[in-house]
Write a structure and sequence with these properties.
The relative contact order is 0.13. The chain is mainly alpha-helical. It has one domain. The chain has 7 helices and no strands.
Length: 145
Amino acid sequence: MPTFKDAEFMTAAEKRKVLKAWTTFVRYGLQFKHFTKAIYSHLSLHCASTAHFDRGGFYGVYFRRPDSTLRFLDQFDPDGLGISVEYGTRHWLEDINYADINQAMREALRPFLPGLRAQLVADRLAIAEAALVEAQAYVTALRKG
């Protein structure tokens, strides 16, 4: 477990709680039931993301569609640049108060990232295939008049 320091709006104990919840969230495939209030609060307050009204709204924006989820995960890819999806900056990784937890979250994602990406790409392909089948059925119906 990384060593965290207290920040003005988040204690070291709260950071450990967020990291533990984040690890569970990514380990179990980004399910809403594991998207805790602690994760949501930290992401919306200290990771260069807006609140999107509430926890459900935030989850809907980033974790309901494979393309959005892939872009979100790129922000947390420990081998990537860490560019914020919403602001296009790295300030969330350089903030003296929260860089420790934010870097730890990136590292916690590392072992799960290949599997998550593979599943999301497969989901994206399934959506495209379903759209193709629907389009083909529509064209067939048009031809029949």
